[in-house]
Amino acid sequence: MNLLFLSRRIFLGDDSHSGLIHGGIIVDTEGIIRRVLRSAQEVNTYLYNTESESVYDFGDLVLMPGLIDPNVHINEPGRRDWEGFASATKAAAAGGFTTIIDRPTNAQPPTVSVAHLKAKTSTARGKIYVDVGFWGGLVPGNVDQLAPLLSAGVMGLQCTLCDPAAPVTQEFPAVNEAQLEEALTQLDQDQAEGEAVIAVHAELPLPTEIHPDEEAPREYGTFLVTRPPQMEISATQLLGRLACRHPRRCIHILNCSSGECLPLVEECRRQGGNLTVDTCPHYLALAAEEVPDCGTEFKTWPPIRERRNQEQLWQALRLGGAIRMIGSDHSPATPGARALTCGRGRGNFLRAWPGINSLQLSLPVVWTAANRRGSNLTIADIHRLMCQEPANLCGLSASKGRIADGYDADFCVWSPEEEFTVCPEQLYTATKATPYAGQRLRGVVHATVVRGLHVYQQFEGFGQPLGKVLLRRSSRKLVKFVSM
């Protein structure tokens, strides 16, 4: 028998209705939406005439399509103590996410070959609470692996224009413009992979390195001056040139922090390039002026910039703006790597691993920041930025991102009005340090549903790890493998 999900505030995420409805969603035993009841009268008629196996009534809570994060670092195999599949997907579920896409960089081995992809997928099965897809890695010397990786099911390819921090530097080195051009040309010649996305960490090394003040390593400004906006601007200019030379290819900029890059993105699009951008909750909600001494949990690449920079980012979130989506760039690490342990190295911004623990908090962080600034950000905008556009980017829009007949019954159930105080102990990530500790946030996730199954409930905790590994054969065919 079918399942029935009810709410007086359902956001469908389809073109036929942009507001909230009082209705219901009928889900079959395979976790697929079979019918949407668009009024209380339709619900009453259905209940009178039909017996459902279970009815879940969420009352006045908002029921919307499950969130999708295209920008998550899961460091297993190899660095599960930084973040593993079980802990990351629990955090995702508690944050309203039903699908996350893992970046290739921080695991051992990184996902730069089909063999390494298989190591990832075999490790994930049986551990994941939400659906997980994968980016494949593009590094110097693995051009021959790109087409096989895409054929094996990665959502797209990801590279960086600047070397990662130690200890990942040698494992996932940066590519230069010539190497990226070579990869794009080869992919363009392969008609079967004509729509594969290339995602890029967009910072270019400076021609002359900025030497920080080694006498003040615990001050955030000492670190901030070493990664000026020009690193992002130069990278965006490079990617704009490539996007115009390869107009069939979508090039996606990951975690953009500098508002000065956005006019370059818009100009590239006017010239015919397909250049897209995401930004992160921490760039929208946190400012350099707020970072305390020794607060290395705030450190990330690109860095959190000054408050004056945020206005450009918020303006670019509007429909049709330069920023298409929001991704967490969730990248925690152990306290030692983050320079958070006791000793002489504590609080050293110059030595700490760069990455923010934010996956579980992304929705309330964005929603709270919008409310505090008096922004007119709506639930429809949250859906577009944190669900619909990520689904489009990753080729999932045929089955995820909407509440409609034939789609996966993936739901985020939350209260936009409720507030809570962030306690690190309540985070489900492998490590707990977060720059949001102690903050009062608005927006509480009450339940997360993946294909009709409750994977998270606020007071009951988690169900079974029934998430699926998602492998995309092409933009037209998605193959799902059950995690059993």
Report the C-alpha radius of gyration, rounded: 22 Å
CATH architecture of the largest domain: Alpha-Beta Barrel
Strand content: 15-25%
Shape: globular
- Under CATH, the homologous superfamily of the largest domain reads Metal-dependent hydrolases
Largest sheet: 9 strands, mixed
Family: Belongs to the metallo-dependent hydrolases superfamily. Allantoinase family.
Cofactor: Zn(2+)
Keywords: Hydrolase, Metal-binding, Zinc
GO cellular component, one term: cytoplasm
Detailed description of the structure:
- Pathway: Nitrogen metabolism; (S)-allantoin degradation; allantoate from (S)-allantoin: step 1/1.
- Pfam families: Amidohydro_1.
- It comes from Drosophila yakuba (Fruit fly).
- This is allantoinase.
- One of its GO terms (biological process) is allantoin catabolic process.
- The structure is a single chain.
- The chain has 484 residues and is an alpha/beta fold.
- It has two domains: 3-60, no CATH class; 67-403, TIM Barrel.
- Helix content is 25%, strand content 23%.
- The protein has twelve helices and 20 strands.
- The chain has helices at 40-49, 85-94, 114-124, 143-152, 177-189, 220-224, 229-245, 262-270, 281-285, 310-315, 362-372, 379-393; strands at residues 3-11, 20-27, 33-37, 54-57, 62-65, 67-72, 97-102, 131-134, 136-137, 156-160, 197-201, 251-254, 275-279, 325-326, 411-421, 440-450, 453-457, 461-462, 468-474, 477-482.
- Strands 1, 2, 3, 4, 5, 15, 16, 17 and 18 form a nine-stranded mixed sheet that branches. Strands 9-10-11-12-13-14 form a six-stranded parallel sheet.
- Helix 7 (229-245) packs parallel to helix 8 (262-270).
- The radius of gyration is 22 Å and the shape is globular.
- The model is unreliable at 475-484 (pLDDT under 50).
